[in-house]
Amino acid sequence: MLISDGNENRGVAADEAEAYAALGVPIDVVPLRYEHGAEILVDQLSAPSAAKRDEVINLRLVVRSQVETAARLMLYRNDRLVDLDPATSRAASSIQLAVGPNRFTIPVKLPASGVHRFRAVIEPENPAADSIVLNNLGQAFTIVGEATRVLIVTDPAGYDSATDATSAIFLADALREGGGQCELVPLDELSSDPAALVDTSAIILSNVSAVALGTARQESLASYVRDQGGGLIVVGGDQAFSVGGYARTPLEEILPVETSRAKLKFLSLSMVIVIDRSGSMAGEKIAMAREAAIGSVELLSRLDCVGVVAFDSAAQWIVPLQPASNRAAITQRLAAIGSGGGTNMYPALEQALAALLGMNTNLKHIIVLTDGQSAPGAFETLAESCRGVGVTISSIAVGPDADRALLARIAQRSGGRMYIADSARPLPQIFARETVLASRSGLFERPFTPRLQPTVDDQVVVGLAGEIPPLRGHVVTAVKPLAHTPLVRPTEDGADPILAYWQVGLGRSVAFTSGLWPKWGSDWVAWSGFSKFWTQAVRYAARSGHAGDLEVETAVRDGNAHVTILAEHLPMRAQGSLVASGQVVGPDYSGAPLPLQRTAAGRYEAVFPLDAPGTYLLNMPYSFGTGAQRQTGVLRAGVVQSYSPEYRTLRHDETTLAEIARRTGGRVINLNNPEAVFESWSIRPVQVRRPFWEDLLHLALVLFLLDVAVRRIAVTPAEAAGRIRRIIQELAGRRTGTDSIATLGALRGAKERAHVGVGQPLEEPPGLPTAVAQQEPIDPGPADELSQALNGAETDKPVAARPTRQGRAPVSSEADYTSRLLRAKRRARGHDSDREDR
Question: If we measure between CA atoms, which residue out of 147, 53, 48 comes closest to residue 634?
């Protein structure tokens, strides 16, 4: 039974129905009928894949309408409204729509290099002329100029924004001195849209924490490096790497260094985590809080102690304050935290402070997390008491309902930090950052001189063999395998990386664990090699590639993207040697191979499905020519799926459903008559074919087991059949026929012999002595014979005469026979006949 509107945007369902028809399986269909009588939709917005600076390009817009109406057209470039009518200074342009497709050409000047994203929106003047708003949108983008831009990103909301800003300016001056171009960008202007980074050669994060970046920007940067071939440089400070919450984040995955728990053992720490488990924390919040707490425990060393207090209307110690080395038991207890009732935070903080006062560690810290308003309490007084005894409190406000003002006062008065999380997702990063900052184990703040060491790839430090100036601090990290570390700080157990870089996916990333130039690197800023060092670092990380005379064409048809690489302007010899590959980065930042195939000399084509609305970026490395004339580069383009193809269909397609039913012998059932599904005449037997070898294999296995059993148990077929027959008869409530016949025969023989012994004395055999002849005949022992008969024994031997006493006549009366028989019966029962006679 297939219930559908019949519209399909991928594949051909009628062709798939042939497989069911071959198996004799009918498909009944129920059409879901609908029709939008008045509808306006943007069918297509297209723009050139590439253009030159100050060039005027033409955007092509196709709008489909079912009614004749007036509408407004609004065009956005990089999320800014474009003035389409300069004479009237009106951003919206009035257009007239006719029934059917309406085509418009919009000229747009591109004043700067980079990525220009366009979004066209149609609004009908009469709302009744449109029923679906989601399909009134069209998107496209154009890449202008070469990707030569370098961004230096800083966080103006950092703890020491003045030092961070000065450090970023020093980096920018060094790059400009080396002939590079760069731009200082605040963190809030760094887009999480991967299309916005296409024109950027490299991005430098100058002392930016993972918490400030957020998950979306981290995933975008990871995709930018790994899938788009971009370059990323992370410069350290008191908000980067381990102290910036980089542990287990998408950002750390692409960096050549990682947080090392083995190296975080400088000062002992006692930390209590206070978690709100009220009813509003149920679901994702409490789950992420548990995960964050577990991650914090894993970052602590054996010298540290940790405890966890959960509170709702009352406080409860989930994990009493204990050494962090017992991670398995602590993790098990944390996993059992659930949600409860109200919110009363003060008793939990009070108990946490009381527990920390008895600990003998260098540092004492409290992390409190809540998403609501707490019952009243003397929080400010408690915070000042904590500061007086060396206990700091960092607060985390989750969601808009948290009392941010109160949490900020608690953190400020105790000397801690305050975090604002719009959702529960950044909690693990916040907890990781707080754990490392609280223990002060992620920073090494002592003067040292970095040491140059040989490496396979020395592009960044080439020509810097002279004296390296000293630094006054760096962030403690561990280098990953396969990463190059030409600059290190020697330690007792090895070396800490100062400079590390490697290739990751299509791009490269560089980690410089020092920074904060006014604080840690004033000697480096005054060093003559400072500009050369950073220029070479950017040159190593930045992506390069020139399209030359190659062109890229993209189109969207039937829910699929069509990509074509053209080399018509290349010489014929170069066209024949053109080699291209590609990768697609989807809206969810996931990468997939682009199936480019050579369809002619100098021509490659690919088709891939557009599974979800959004921007699909195409990165296509290429090469052509041989020897010294060989050229390589990367072509970049994109395809935009503005909305789901489902919103393009304005009525049901009953024809497709009817064809499916016809090919399979099914029926078209009306939705108003659902009981027709169960009509008996429509039910037909279905023949399903399956391989016969499986049955044969099962039979062979059973016979093999039987054969082994017969050989091992050594039972003949006749014995087995006899035993089975007797068992069946016993179960039927009667003994076997053979035993019954034998028993009856024995009883009859005993009776006959008894009669013979009583009434007809046996003749003496000839030749016997006279004494023997005069003896009484031997009694056959009726009791013995009866016992033998009852036991199933056969008595085929003649009955011998019992010897008689002298002068005693043989017994011949019927009464004497009866008494003898009774005595034999008593003897058979174990009675003493002589005693009874007496």
Answer: 147
Q: What are phi and psi of 612, to 5 degrees?
A: -145, 155
Residue 409 near residue 380 (C-beta atoms within 8 A)? yes
pLDDT in tens, 559-602: 788 898 888 767 677 777 888 888 898 888 888 899 898 888 77
Contact 93, 85 (CB under 8 A): yes
**From the CB of residue 230, how many other CB atoms can be counted at a distance below 10 Å?**
27
Residues contacting residue 218 through CB under 8 Å, at least 6 positions apart: 210, 249, 250, 251
d(CA 651, CA 31): 11
Q: How many CA atoms lie within 13 A of 786 on its CB side?
A: 15
Of 27, 19, 39, 12, the closest CA to residue 650 belongs to 39
CB 238 within 8 A of CB 443: yes
E strand or H helix at 573:
helix 572-576
CA 431 – CA 437 distance, rounded (Å): 10
Note the pLDDT tens digit of each residue in 160-203. 778 889 999 999 999 888 877 788 999 988 888 877 787 788 99
Q: CA-to-CA distance for 581 and 623, rounded, in angstroms?
A: 10
**Separation between Cα atoms, residue 462 and residue 263, nearest integer Å:** 30
Judging by DSSP bridges, how do beta strands 418-421 and 391-398 pair with one another?
parallel
Yes or no: say if 455 and 245 are a contact pair by the CB < 8 Å rule: no
Helix%, strand%, coil% for the chain, nearest 5: 35, 30, 40
Parts of the chain with a pLDDT under 70: 85-91, 145-148, 159, 260-267, 438-441, 465, 544-549, 569, 571, 628-629, 682-688, 714-716, 733-817, 828-838
> How far, in Å, are 380, 701, 708, 714 from residue 711 at the CA level?
89, 16, 5, 5
Helix (H, G, I), strand (E, B) or coil at 140: strand
- Residue matched to tokens 């409204």: 81
C-alpha dist (Å) from residue 730 to 601, 723, 738: 90, 10, 13
* pLDDT, tens digit, 9 for 90 and up, residues 667-713: 898 888 888 888 777 666 666 677 888 889 999 999 998 888 777 77
**Per-residue tokens: 536:** 């070479």
| Tokens found for residue 616 | 């699909």
Tell me 156's DSSP state.
Answer: T
323: its two tokens: 């050494």
Residue 372 has what DSSP assignment? S
The number of residues making up the chain comes to: 838
Question: Cα-flanking dihedrals φ and ψ of residue 197, to 5°?
Answer: -105, 5
| Beta-strand pair 614-624/603-609 | unpaired
Give bridge partners of residue 570 from the DSSP assignment: none
3-state secondary structure of 153: strand
**Residue 610, SS3?**
coil
430: phi then psi, degrees, rounded to nearest 5: -65, -45
The distance of Cα 610 from the centroid of its chain, to the nearest Å, equals 22
| pLDDT of res. 520 | 93
